[in-house]
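Protein entry
_____________
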Amino acid sequence: MSLNKLRDMFARKEGAVGTFFSGGNQSFMECLGFSGLDFVIIDCEHGPFDTETMMDLIRAAELHGLAPFVRIANVDHKEIQRAADCGAMGLIVPCLRDVADFKKLVDLAKFTPLGNRGFIKGRGAGFGYADWADTETIPEFFANSNDRLIVMPQCETKEALENIEEVVAIDGIDGIFIGPFDLSTAMGIAGRFELPEFKAAEERVFRACKEAGKICYTFTLSPEKAASYIRQGYDGVACSQDYVVFTEGYKAMTGRIREDLRSTR
């Protein structure tokens, strides 16, 4: 078994279901823990979260068995180090273009021999007292940490798409997260997910991941589409965002109330 349940789900070919989290707090995160989701992506690219809030959200996710991913803003030492040290079990990384960007990501996110991440046994390692971190040797700790942290950059630029076969061959890149909105925009067909050229782009990324034995996740707003992706063999889908589900849920509730009131007048 792996130290990351999402790796185990990948090995068992079980599709993982998650969502983006960018508008809530720790209590909302705990609520998601009772929803049946497998993972959550704490959005530090578009969300308002500082380091301490991100760490508290990771704690809340762990409390109820949600695997906490963090989407950072870019390939930056501080962005990567803080998320990994605070206990992220996965990194989603946007805006990468050439192969050098992906190699730099691995260098910063993974311990030697895969990369050169700075040593610490921080909060994410139980300050060194977590069972998997309390090892006899430092190399054992490095290996466990590298297993626990899934590095999953996004494919959302034309350059990433054009180099995807080379990207997934990089040791330390654990998988690819397709960013359909930005990828379609970069291709000049923003939001036209039904077009053959976009479907071909998705298929190219998916096929490259499968041939390299790497994880492939994607995003959709539709539960039906999420199920369809998993049936196709995708390893995970992030479906919608917390504030969308929150708003749509209350809209549906208030709509039913007002409809019932109108029908009784």
Notes: The chain has a mean pLDDT of 97. The first strand starts at residue 16 and ends at 21. The two ends are 61 Å apart (CA to CA).
